[in-house]
Amino acid sequence: MRAVVFERYGESAEVREVPDPVPAPHGVVVRVEATGLCRSDWHGWMGHDSDIALPHVPGHELAGVVEAVGAGVTGWRSGDRVTVPFVCACGSCPSCAAGDQQVCERQTQPGFTHWGSFAEFVALDHADVNLVAVPEGMSYATAASLGCRFATAYRAVVQQGRVAAGEWVAVHGCGGVGLSAVMIAAAAGARVVAVDVSPGALELARKFGAVECVNAATTGDTAAAVRDLTGGGAHVSLDALGSPVTCASSVNSLRRRGRHVQVGLLPSSEGTTPVPMARAIALELELLGSHGMAAHTYPPMLELVRAGVLRPDLLVTSTIPLTESPTALAEMGTASGAGATVIEPWR
Question: Model-level pTM greater than 0.85?
Fold first, then answer.
């Protein structure tokens, strides 16, 4: 099969022929119809993830068709249309038993713990626990975005952030995850303030439901701007980018007893990230992490997509062939990241 391979961190990847994967007894091989280009893939390429062993094939946000099935799989067969969370759970550890597969103690992640979906085929573990059926009529490009950025944003806003209608929600960073969070929060009836350095990203955020926008490139104190716009601070604030600056700004944007949700990865290369803990104590803030979403919690989100309440398809702003993926991956470090880029490996 063809796949995007890199042999050194931060150096050019290339498309080459590699052996086809074989399913584990509990797993499947999926023919990849679409896979998202995510900032997490860039972090992996840069060497920010200790799980990656070189040479490596990135990609973790995918949808496609089951090609081969392991002998122990009971719920899936060849030809099924599927997507998968980026955290593939084991199904048997205490966290999985509690229904918290997104923090599985023996999790695997395509594109990190093993070769991923920037390829024509990808192997996925524990299929009966992790696969999610793609509804008929949903495009593979839309389904691919659900596995990481959209599902991550949904859990961050709805399950972790516990957003309620009428609340103010601040979203710091309007790339794929951030724009998803804007759309989801607005659909829940919240009033959204979008924060980004890119006018184009802020324009998209307003299109997807933001009622206020703050350009962090031209605003001296973005947290103060959010507090002014919201009459004292957001009820919920998300760092959807992942940097010391956006993390601190998100916490400082909150009103008393507000809820900060950290969604964007904070790479170890940045060192230990300082958090405004004095403010967290004084205002009794909640500081929450959000790490993907378990497969069994997808149905409510899928129903909102089916009903047209949520439109993840509108977030896809670019579709590229596999041959353009190495360049697009490298450019993630400097591009504004507005919207979502989807790779179609069969092109």
Answer: yes
